[in-house]
Amino acid sequence: MKVLVATSKPFAKVAVDGIREVIEGAGYELVLLEKYTEKAALLKAVADVDAIIIRSDIIDAEVFDAAKQLKIVVRAGAGYDNVDLASATAHGVCVMNTPGQNANAVAELVAGLMVYAVRNFYNGTSGIELLGKKLGIHAFGNVGRNVARIAKGFGMEVYAFDAYCPKEAIEAAGVHAVDSVEEMYKTCQFISLHLPATDETKNSIGKKLVSLMPKGAVLVNSARKEIINEDELIQLMQEREDLKFVSDIAPAASAKFEELFVGRYFATPKKMGAQTAEANINAGIAAANQIVGFIKDGCTKFMVNR
Ligand code: 3PG
Question: CB within 6 Å of ligand 1 — which residues?
Fold first, then answer.
């Protein structure tokens, strides 16, 4: 049994050591393809493997075609929009994610982005504080819940909206639930996005919602760039000089945002929410254990292409 770790953005070494311990402990072979830049390298590496652990690496039909022995792909992380699920199913391959394992890391980065934005990107000028401000969490999953916990530590008033999470569950977490997403955007000076990128959510964060935010609005995106309607956000930021946008992934029109919104826009050069040793260890080892559980016992918990 051969397991490949294919990570263009590699895990911390300590996480790879943990993955190796699980995989070799089960009697399997571990091979690494780290920091690869060409798809050809991935296509070659997958040719004879039974399982693959990935991060945001693109696994499309061409990869499934090339991976003749493949049985399972585990995305060590939450979002699996980088995997062609229909093709996986057509090839008889099980796809899993490891929900929650890197959530705290992403949430801590969100806190950092909020502080960075309200302290004027550390340019030495007088900013504002988070204490007492209202934060709206758009989608209340694992990351959203961790953001809520941390924001409460700052003394923020936390609100959340999730189309798939009942109000009672949000209230039970000690967070204000709202009746509509519009109400949350109207209420909150800070909005943190935690939606997955799906057909339903792509381009869904645009003028209609963001324009509702109160004065001094800060929009934080640690999800996927595709959920933002960039043209509309650019237009709105041109109209509203009070609006700031901070993101843990450069938007497609990053150069334009940089040029037009100096002092109001920041994006990490490379998505780094989940780039901590702890998140890498949690997600990487969970992925390795899920592979062993699937191959040895047929366990399909966390399968996303049923
Ligand atoms: C996720 O979906 O888990 C996060 O966006 C982290 O992605 P990464 O593993 O590519 O850093």
Answer: 9, 55-56, 77-79, 102, 271, 273-274
Top-level CATH class of 103-267? alpha beta
Q: Are 24 and 6 in contact (CB under 8 A)?
A: no
The dotted CATH code for 2-101+275-297 is: 3.40.50.720
**Edge-to-edge strand ranges of the sheet holding 51-54:** 29-34, 2-7, 51-54, 72-75, 94-97
| Ligand 1 atom 11: residue of nearest CA | 274
Question: Which residues make Cβ contacts (< 8 Å) with residue 101, sequence separation at least 6?
Answer: 76, 77, 78, 279, 282, 283, 286
Scanning the structure block, which residue is given the tokens 């977490």? 173
Reported as a single tens digit per residue, the pLDDT across 145-189 is 999 999 999 999 999 999 999 999 999 999 999 999 999 999 999
The answer, as to whether pTM is greater than 0.90, is: yes
- At residue 35, the 3 state secondary structure works out as coil
Distance 278 CA to ligand 1 centre (A): 13
